[in-house]
Each structure stands twice: as structure tokens, then as C-alpha cells.
Recover the amino acids of this structure.
């Protein structure tokens, strides 16, 4: 059974940092890319970032490039999202999910954990 447990969210001031963690089970990062999505109040879900550990490729939404860094520890089946220079518009519930990657496309599979809330104050 696929399980995903997100943690590390919280309340920070603009310009601050957080590191999110995703503990996964039921699949391995050798077989699937792993990444993050978020949903902000009143907005549609959007992909934030993912990593394909088979070749080291990373993918980022334009809105977070240069500020967020994705990584993974395959032995622990854990993914991380280091978020720096946070902005109020980063406020959202963040979820991790396995991703299918093909060329420039990165698409999440329909598996969800409980998510972790990130709130960035002005």
C-alpha cells in the first residue's frame, strides 16, 4: 500500500526558510520520481518540484526556481523540499506524490498524504 506522510510545515515570516519532509512507503524512488505539489486558498493545485533519482533530473515551477531545492534519500525513502526566501504567495498546503516524468513533463500519480501547512506572513 502506498503511504505518504508530509511534515515540516509551519508559520514563518517572509524571507524565512522551512524544510519539508516526505516519508514514503509502498514504492521506491528507484522506480518512480518523487515530488511536491501545493494548493493555496482559492487556487488550483500546482506542481512545485520533483526529482528523478535514476538520472538526477530535477523539475521546478517557475515561481519557485532559485528559492526551493528538492532532494531525496533513497535509502530512507524520504524526500525533502528546502524552501528559502519564502514569500506570502508560497502559503499553501504542501503534498508529496510519486511522479511520472517524460521529457519536460512531470505528472503526479493520484496518491496523497495528509499534507503539511505552510504559512508565510508579511
Amino acid at each position: 500500500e502506498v503511504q505518504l506522510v508530509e511534515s515540516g510545515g509551519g508559520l514563518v515570516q517572509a524571507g524565512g526558510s522551512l524544510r519539508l519532509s516526505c516519508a514514503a512507503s509502498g514504492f521506491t524512488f528507484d522506480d518512480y520520481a518523487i515530488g511536491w505539489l501545493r494548493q493555496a486558498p482559492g487556487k488550483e493545485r500546482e506542481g512545485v518540484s520533483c526529482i528523478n533519482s535514476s538520472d538526477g533530473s530535477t523539475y521546478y515551477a517557475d515561481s519557485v526556481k532559485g528559492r526551493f531545492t528538492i532532494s531525496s534519500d533513497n535509502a530512507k525513502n524520504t524526500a525533502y523540499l528546502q524552501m528559502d526566501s519564502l514569500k506570502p504567495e508560497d502559503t499553501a498546503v504542501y503534498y508529496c506524490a510519486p511522479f511520472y516524468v517524460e521529457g519536460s513533463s512531470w505528472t503526479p500519480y493520484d496518491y496523497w498524504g495528509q499534507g503539511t501547512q505552510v504559512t508565510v506572513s508579511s
